[in-house]
Amino acid sequence: MGGFHIGHPYLPDDEMIALIHSGIDRGITFLDNSWDYNSGMSEMRMGRALCTNGYRDRVFLMTKVDGRTAAAFNDQLEQSLQRLLTDRLDLIQFHENIRPDDADRIFARGGAFEAAIAAKKAGKVRFIGFTGHKDPDYHLHMIDLARRHDFVFDTVQMPINVFDAHFNSFAKKVIPVAQELDMGILAMKTFGDSNLIEASGLDPIDMLHYGMNQPVSVVITGIDTPKILDQACKAATTFAPLTKKRVDAMLAKTAKLAADGMYERYKTSQFFDSTAQNPSWLG
């Protein structure tokens, strides 16, 4: 269950909390979030949902922080823990690895990596990963720099969808490296904020199945209504490995549309780049 959509300020608190409960009751166990989503509203709603009736112990809770310095990382982590009403996260991720030097800043002396390791030793986080949607080469640089620090990330989050396969592909470039290192692979942007559905005309269930057909640990999808929750649950309960013929047909339908990345705005524009619009969050 993606964390961004549940925090939209125009959606009622009680309905979103009930939606989180419903998702967990129907079998969703991975909850995504971020320190910067909706000015903290996404984390606050999720925290309120998880603090009742033992829901926290039924899920794998992840959030992300933007800070590149140890000080910024620690400040944002503490805010996230307070909002989520918990004393521990199952996974913390460095958010938006979208610039060539993000990895260098994170691994610099006094950088966020040092703070993340300390937080893990303190029992505040169990696993450490990173996310990004801009360029697979930035992901490969992050993974390589970690290895030079004798560290392998537990997880990596990236766009995985029927458009990505054709343009500057995370699936082609990053997944094989992550598999080699036994990293958890977290798929996101199945629909590109509905942009890819509208462009391709593909069925949302088929698009979710395409993501699930990849060698991923989880497909993260935004859920903000009972109807969209039904869609996600249907995708999970009806999934079976796709035939090569079916995959080839989906890719053929999107090949021309996806060739220049125009519809993958998260790669080719700053539309999705929250830290570019708010550079102070980096520290």
Oligomerization status of the protein chains = single chain
Percentage of residues in helical conformation: 40-55%
Tell how many strands the DSSP assignment holds. 7
How would a textbook summarize the main sheet? 7 strands, parallel
Which strand order spans the largest sheet, edge to edge or round the barrel? 1-2-3-4-5-6-7
Q: Report the average pLDDT across residues.
A: 97
Global geometry: globular
Order of helices and strands: HEHEHEHHEHEHHEHHEHHHH
Please report the distance between the alpha carbons of the first and last residues. 28 Å
Give the percentage of residues in beta strands. 5-15%
Alpha plus pi helix count = 14
Q: Catalogue the unreliable spans.
A: none
Which radius of gyration do the C-alpha atoms yield?
18 Å
Structural class: alpha/beta
